[in-house]
Design goal:
single chain, 303 residues, alpha/beta, Alkaline Phosphatase, subunit A, eight-stranded mixed beta sheet, two-stranded antiparallel ribbon, 10 strands, globular
C-alpha cells in the first residue's frame, strides 16, 4: 500500500462503537440523488447567523444543522480522505498530498460493486477524466477521487467532469446516485473571490453564499431529488485558529424533502459519521472506520 494511513483500520475499534449496535437505526437506501458540496476552512461561528451568508442560513432555518460537528484534523486532504475512505490519509505533510495512489477501500470501490452511479463535478477541471495536478483555480487536493487507484487510469475517471456538466445533468434530470461537487478555491471559502488571501473574511463568506444560491437552488425543483434526495453542505475543517476537537467546529447542513424541518442536532459528529450516512443512503458497504460508527439518521423524518 503506497498511501500513508494516520489511523489504520485495525485501531478503529479503540475509538468507535461496534457497528452491530447501530443496525436498528440504519437509514434505508434511496435511488434519489445524494449530493455533497465541499466547502473550505470556515468555522461554525463564522457561518451560522452570518449576515454575509443569507442563503446558507435560510437553508439552516428550513432544513437541518449539525451544531456539534467537528473536523478530524487541520489540513484539507486528511479530512477529504476520511469522508471518502473512512480513514485519515496523508502524504508529504498535512493537507499537501503528493501524487500518490489511494489503494485502500473507498466509496468509489463500493459504489462500483453495487452498480451505483457517481460523478465529481469540479469547477475549472480542465477536461473530463482529468487526474493531473492543480489547474488554478481548481486544486487537486480538494478532489480525493483523483487519487484513487479505482479511478486513475481506469474508465471510472470519466466520472470526473468539469462543473459545467452540473447544469446540464440537473436540467436533464440525469444526476447520478452520488454527486461530489467541488467549487474552485475562489468560491469554496479557501481564497478571496479574486484569488489570494488579501480580503476580509466577509468577502469569502459572501462569495460562497452567492455561489451556492446560483448553483444549488435548482436542485430543489429537480424531479428525482424531490423523491428523497439529500443535499449536504460540508466543510472540511474550521478556520486555522479553531482547534476545537483538533479540526475545528463546522456547520454541516442537511437539506431535502425527508429532512426534519428546522432540525438542530446536538450530537457529536465527525466526517466518518457523515460517510456512514452517505453509504447507508446509497445502500453500499461502509469502508474503513466508518463501519464502527453510527450514521446521522436523526436528521431524517421517521428517525
Amino acid at each position: 500500500m503506497n498511501s500513508t494511513r494516520l489511523l489504520p483500520t485495525i485501531l478503529c475499534v479503540l475509538f468507535f462503537f461496534p457497528a452491530a449496535s447501530e443496525a436498528s437505526n440504519q437509514l434505508p437506501a434511496t435511488n434519489a440523488p445524494i449530493i455533497v458540496v465541499a466547502l473550505e476552512n470556515e468555522s461554525y461561528l463564522d457561518v451560522v447567523g452570518s449576515p454575509y451568508m443569507p442563503y446558507y442560513n435560510g437553508l439552516i432555518t428550513q432544513y437541518g444543522l449539525a451544531t456539534q460537528f467537528y473536523a478530524n484534523v487541520h489540513g484539507s486532504f486528511p479530512d477529504y480522505a476520511m469522508l471518502t475512505t473512512g480513514e485519515l490519509i496523508t502524504s508529504a505533510g498535512w493537507g499537501l498530498p503528493g501524487d500518490f495512489p489511494i489503494s485502500i477501500d473507498n466509496i468509489v470501490r463500493e459504489m462500483v460493486k453495487a452498480a451505483k452511479t457517481w460523478r465529481v463535478y469540479a469547477e475549472n477541471l480542465p477536461w473530463v477524466g482529468y487526474t493531473g495536478g492543480d489547474s488554478y483555480p481548481y486544486v487537486k487536493r480538494h478532489n480525493p477521487f483523483a487519487y484513487m487507484t479505482d479511478v486513475v487510469g481506469k474508465s471510472q475517471a470519466n466520472n470526473l467532469v468539469p462543473f459545467t456538466q452540473w447544469t446540464t445533468d440537473l436540467a436533464a434530470n440525469a444526476l447520478p446516485n452520488f454527486s461530489f461537487v467541488v467549487p474552485n478555491v475562489q468560491h469554496d471559502g479557501n481564497e478571496c473571490p479574486g484569488g489570494g488571501q488579501n480580503c476580509a473574511n466577509s468577502a469569502k463568506l459572501s462569495a460562497v453564499d452567492q455561489w451556492l444560491q446560483t448553483n444549488v437552488t435548482a436542485v430543489f425543483q429537480n424531479p428525482a431529488f424531490q423523491k428523497g434526495g439529500v443535499l449536504i453542505l460540508w466543510w472540511d475543517e474550521g478556520d486555522s485558529s479553531d482547534k476545537a476537537h483538533v479540526g475545528g467546529q463546522v456547520a454541516v447542513v442537511f437539506a431535502g424533502p425527508n429532512i426534519k424541518p428546522g432540525y438542530m442536532s446536538t450530537t457529536f459528529y465527525r466526517h466518518e459519521h457523515l460517510l456512514r450516512t452517505i453509504v447507508e443512503l446509497l445502500g453500499i458497504n461502509a469502508p474503513g472506520c466508518t463501519v464502527y460508527v453510527p450514521s446521522m439518521a436523526e436528521f431524517f423524518v421517521g428517525h
